[in-house]
Specification:
By secondary structure, this protein is mainly alpha-helical. It has a domain at about 40-180 and about 290-305: Rossmann fold (3-Layer(aba) Sandwich). It contains eleven helices and four strands, in the order ααβαβαβαβαααααα. It has helices at about 5-25, 45-55, 75-90, 120-135, 150-165, 175, 200-205, 225-235, 240-250, 260-265, 280-305, and strands at about 60-65, 95, 140-145, 170. A four-stranded parallel β-sheet has the order 2-1-3-4. β3, α5 (about 150-165) and β4 form a beta-alpha-beta unit. α8 (about 225-235) packs across α9 (about 240-250). The longest helix has 27 residues, at about 280-305. It is globular and about 100 Å long.
Length: about 300
């Protein structure tokens, strides 16, 4: 027979073993899939940012959107793809990736559930205040990456306002890397193929493959105003005047009365006649490679100029 003391000691031992077993098999968040990414501000500690500032004062800010992208691409396509491109660049050179807003200007997609849109004033003001914060910490140079076509005028204004009203120096990503881009091996389009089409699908298949539901992609049925339909051949051929006028009127909010919002023009939200299933990860990989290489070349040139000051 065990003594009472021995019995209590045995119970305590069993409890300790049970607790240790529970700790060894404890589960963490089953939905967590992220790995720490170098130079990505949301993943960094403040000592890591301080250490980064000893090497570089350069920031890249992707400006995306939350908007419908058809049946097969997520609402966050522009934001996620912009961030992922920026991360790839930041693995090659010391540039801080600092996304500020998921949301952009997308009033013409509001006819489809899930789209969120902000005013141009709000987007510019939020980014300016974020840039001021980064300048406070010692960052001086900013690359503004427009990851959503509808933000083009906004990001142009943002670059100008950073240069005009702050101590920082900013450039537009597209203008900066354009001269360094290798030619696109993809043959020219023969039909309208824009928002949510084969290019964006290809980029997404490479940059965020698990979020693409390619099996749900279908070719859209387009209903354009007749005068825009008549312009399409010249638009597809790349005529600059036709393209300028087409984009000036196409994809505009329902409230404008132009009859060109995504819900009014497209059966799926995709602005193109080509089947998005024709997109490939290989095409997306090639586009990402050319973009990263061009960005690296531009950053190297900018760093040379800074080093000569």
């Amino acid at each position: 027979m065990r003594s009472r003391k021995e019995y209590l000691q045995h119970v305590v031992f069993v409890l300790l073993i049970s607790l240790m077993s529970m700790q060894s098999t404890a589960q963490t968040n089953p939905l967590w899939t992220q790995q720490k990414v170098k130079n990505y501000l949301p993943h960094m500690t403040y000592p890591e940012v301080e250490a980064f500032l000893e090497k570089s004062d350069l920031v890249i800010i992707p400006v995306g959107s939350l908007e419908q992208h058809g049946d097969h691409l997520p609402i966050g396509t522009d934001f996620i793809n912009g961030v992922e491109r920026s991360k790839l660049i930041a693995q090659e050179r010391d540039v801080l990736v600092a996304p500020v807003l998921m949301v952009g200007q997308s009033p013409y997609h509001m006819g489809m559930a899930g789209t969120i849109t902000l005013s141009a004033d709000t987007i510019v003001q939020v980014h300016l205040e974020a840039v001021e914060s980064l300048i406070h910490h010692g960052f001086k140079r900013f690359i503004i990456m427009n990851a959503h076509g509808g933000n083009r005028a906004i990001t142009t204004l943002l670059v100008d306002q950073i240069n005009q009203t702050t101590a920082g120096v900013a450039v537009s990503f597209g203008q900066a890397v354009g001269p360094f881009m290798d030619p696109d091996p993809e043959p020219p389009a023969t039909v309208l193929d824009r928002h949510g089409g084969t290019s964006e699908t290809s980029n997404s298949l490479y940059l965020m493959p698990s979020l693409v539901q390619l099996d749900k992609a279908v070719a859209a049925e387009l209903t354009l105003p007749q005068h825009l339909e008549d312009m399409l051949p010249e638009v597809v051929d790349g005529d600059p005047t036709a393209l300028m006028l087409f984009l000036a009127e196409g994809l505009k909010a329902e409230e404008t009365g132009k009859k060109t919002s995504s819900a009014e023009m497209s059966s799926t939200g995709v602005w193109g006649a080509r089947d998005p299933k024709e997109g490939t990860a290989k095409r997306g990989e090639d586009a990402a490679r050319r973009t990263v290489n061009a960005a690296v070349r531009f950053i190297d040139r900018w760093n040379e100029y800074v080093g000569s000051q």
